[in-house]
Amino acid sequence: MNLNQVTLPVHNMPQAVEFYQVLGFKLIVDTPHYARFECPTGGSSFSLSLETETFKNGAAIYFEHKELDEWVEQLVAKGIQFEQLPTMERYLWKEAILIDPSNNKIKLYWAGENRLNPPWRVN
């Protein structure tokens, strides 16, 4: 089994598409109500779905990048604002946090071996 994609709700599709393209994702489906992106490496994808009703999304989506610090520096230079710059967390992941234009929480991170094999992994 493999995870295919995660779909985020958005209020403004053109604004959301532009935001994720600035982050570096490749737009592969573009309609007024749905957009899908391919991640630059790894073969994963995610999508956006236009919501006309008010929503609150409590989920966070994580995007992994080995060169996290450099990626964040590039995004800051492009005007992306972060709630948290790269910080080593107690669970051994280095994370940066930002909020997309529709108030979805996005975490950019690098965990290396700890992503799937933390010291407390259950066997």
Automatic annotation (TrEMBL):
One Pfam assignment: Glyoxalase
Keyword Nucleus applies: no
Matches recorded under InterPro entries: Glyas_Bleomycin-R_OHBP_Dase, Glyas_Fos-R_dOase_dom, Glyoxalase_1_CS, VOC_core
Keyword Hydrolase: no
GO terms assigned for molecular function: lactoylglutathione lyase activity; metal ion binding
All residue ranges annotated as the VOC domain in the record: 2-111
Keyword annotations: Metal-binding
Annotated PROSITE patterns: GLYOXALASE_I_1, VOC
Domain of life the protein comes from: Bacteria
Descriptive protein name: Glyoxalase
